[in-house]
Amino acid sequence: MKLESFARDCHDILEADPGPAGRQKVAALLEAALRDPEFLETSVSDTTPERHILYEDPELGFCILAHVHQGAKESQPHDHGPSWAIYGQARGKTGMRLWKT
Q1: Which helix (H) or strand (E) segment is 25 a member of?
Q2: Structural domain contains residue 14
């Protein structure tokens, strides 16, 4: 799978169903993409900046980002506000904690 086809498929899914069910389909598509060596080789490398926008959809406004961290990172609890995010991880481990406000 190539980034262009992944982005087009995400667009088509979210255009047809912008709600939670559509986002679940995008998450499943992302899971498949992250298991595809061709997708990873052509989209992300060790020289990719720590935070890099791979694609921004001009019609729906969603972005596909790559985060490539060299070594451990920490992030404070944060809120995406009225927006949403779908995360996937190709390599390494991430420890997540739930925070009560």
Answers
A1: helix 20-34
A2: yes
Q: Is 82 part of a structural domain of the chain?
A: no
User: What is the tally of structural domains in the chain?
Assistant: 1
- Please indicate, yes or no, if residue 81 is contained in any of the structural domains: no
pLDDT in tens, 18-48: 999 999 999 999 999 999 999 988 888 777 7
The conformational region for residue 96 under phi > 0 = left, psi -120 to 50 = alpha, else beta, is beta
Q: Do residues 39 and 2 make contact, with C-beta atoms less than 8 angstroms apart?
A: yes
The yes-or-no verdict on residue 76 having pLDDT over 70 is yes
- Per DSSP, 7 falls in state H
The answer to whether residues 23 and 86 touch, using CB atoms and an 8 Å cutoff, is: yes
In a domain, residue 31? The reply is yes
Q: What is the pTM of this model?
A: 0.82
| Two structure tokens written together for 39 | 């997708």
For 57, the domain range is 3-67
